[in-house]
Amino acid sequence: LYALSATLGEGVGLVFSPAKVIFAGIGVLLLAAKDVSGSQEALSNLFERVENFFKRLETYTEVPPTAAMTDIIVKIMVEVLGVLALATKEIKQGSAKKYLKKLAGRTDIEDALGRLDKLTHDEALMATAQILKLAHNVDNKVTSVDDKVKVVIEDGREAKVAAKEAKVAAKEAKLIMQQTANTVDQVKRSQLHQDLRRWLSPPDPSINHNIARGAHHTGTASWFFQGTIFNNWKSSASLLWVHGKPGSGKSILCSTIVQDIESICKAGLAFMAYFYFDFRDTAKQNRRNLLPSLLIQFAECSDPCCDVLSRIYSEHGSGTRQPSDEVLIQCLKDMILIPDQLPKYIVVDALDECSNTSGMPTPREQVLDLVKDLVGLSFPNLHICVTSRPEIDIRSALEPITSLHVSLHDQSGQKEDIIQYVSSVVQSDTKMRRWRQEDKNLVVETLSERADGM
C-alpha cells in the first residue's frame, strides 16, 4: 500500500489537486503504524477501504470522469484524509490495543467512515450512470456512422450515375464539336473549290456527256463492257484507244464508259476526270481547255488532289495570275502520284475534234504529246481512255504505246447494236407499225447494211 501510494501520489495529484495531501497523510499513517506491534491487523479494515479507493482512482486517471463524478471523488478524498488524520493521531498516542479501542469507540471516526461508505456507494451509482451514458453515446455514434456510411454508399451510387451521365455528355459534346469542325471544313473546302474553279474557268464537259447519254440506246454496247479488252483496261494501268468512223457512236460509247467508272468512284474505290473535245465549241478544242477541266474534277473528288491544286493557286497570288501549261501538267502528275493507292481514270472523247490546222505544235499535237508523256511515265494507278477517228497522226501516236484498242467499224457487236437500234425504231414508229412484217424486216436489213458501222 505504501508503494502504491508513492506511485500514484504525483500522477493523481495532476488530475485531482487534493490527492497530494491525502497520499502524504497515508505515508505518515503507514510510517507511524509500522512501529506499533500488531498494527497491521488492527488497521486492515481501514487500509482495505483505502486500497480499493486507490485502484478506482487509478482508473479515473486513465478515463477522465465527469464533473459530477469528480465532485464525489474529491469528497471521498476529504473523508479519507479525515479518517487518516484521526487514525494517525491515535496510533502515535498509544498502542494498537488502545488504538483499536478508541477507534471503535470514537463517534467522529465512525461518522467519517459512514460518510466514506455513502460516498463510495454514490461513486458506484455515478460510475454506472456514466457507463450507461457512454454506451448510449457509443450507440448513437455507431448509428450515426452507419447512417453516414449509407449516405456515402448512396452518394457513391449517385456519383457513379453522374459520372456515367457525364461520360455520355462528354462523348456527345465531342461528337458535336467534331461535326461542327467537319461542317466548317466542308464550308472552307467548298469555298476553295469555287475559288479554284473561278481561277481556272474550265469548260463544262457534262454538257456533252448528257447529250451523249441521251442518245444511248438501252441494251447496246454490252459486247464492249463484257469483253476482255475493256476489263483488262479497268484492272491494270494502261491506255485504251477506241476508234471508229464519224457517227459510229464513239461519244455515246464514251459516255457509257464514264457511267461505268462513276459507279466505282461513288463506292470510293477510284477517282475519275473526263473531257469531250467539240469542234462546235472553241472552249473545248485544245490542251489549255483540257488541263483545267481534269484538274478541277480531280480536286473536287479528292482532298489530297485539292491540296495540290491549292498550292499552285497560292503560288500564283491566290488566283491573281494564270499558270502556264507546264505548271498545270506538273500539277496533274503530282495528283496522279499521290500515294493513296486508288486508281485514277482519265477519259477523253473525240480527240480528232481538237484543232490540227494551226500552231507549232498544233493543239492536237500538244494533246497527243501529253498522252504519250503520261503513258511513258508508267504510273501504276493511271488508266487513260481516248476515243477518236482513226486519223493518221492519231494512229501513229497512239498505236505504239498501247495494245488495247477497239475498232468500232470491225466489231460484230457494233453491227448487232445497229440492227437492234434500227429494229426498235421501225417497231416504235406509228406509221411503220401498220406495215407487213416482211417489209419491216427488209427495212431493218437494208439500213443496217448501208449504215456501214455508223
Label this structure with key terms:
NACHT domain-containing protein, Goodbye_dom, alpha/beta, 5 strands, five-stranded parallel sheet, repeat, NPHP3-like_N, 17 helices, Rossmann fold, P-loop_NTPase
Can you tell me about this structure?
This protein has 454 residues and is an alpha/beta fold. It folds into two domains: 2-146; 201-410, P-loop containing nucleotide triphosphate hydrolases (Rossmann fold). Helices cover 69% and strands 6% of the residues. It contains 17 helices and five strands. It has helices at residues 2-15, 19-33, 39-62, 67-93, 96-105, 107-200, 206-214, 222-225, 228-235, 250-266, 287-301, 303-315, 325-336, 363-376, 392-398, 412-428, 437-451; strands at residues 238-243, 271-276, 344-349, 382-388, 404-407. Strands 2-3-4-1-5 form a five-stranded parallel beta sheet, with helices on both faces. Helix 14 (363-376) links the parallel strand 3 and strand 4. The longest helix has 94 residues, at 107-200. The termini are far apart. Mean pLDDT is 79; it is low at 36-42 and 95-105. This is NACHT domain-containing protein. It holds the Pfam family NPHP3_N. Keywords: Repeat. It comes from Multifurca ochricompacta.
Count of DSSP helices? 17
| CATH topology (level 3) name of the largest domain | Rossmann fold
CA-CA gap between termini? 140 Å
Structural Rg: 59 Å
Largest beta-sheet characterization = 5 strands, parallel
Task: Let me know the number of strands.
Answer: 5
> In CATH, what is the homologous superfamily of the largest domain?
P-loop containing nucleotide triphosphate hydrolases
Low-confidence stretches: 36-42, 95-105
Classify the beta-strand content into a percent band: 5-15%
Please write the string of helix (H) and strand (E) elements: HHHHHHHHHEHEHHHEHEHEHH
Q: Percent of residues in helical segments?
A: 55-70%
Structural class: alpha/beta
CATH class of the largest domain: Alpha Beta
The second-level CATH architecture of the largest domain is: 3-Layer(aba) Sandwich
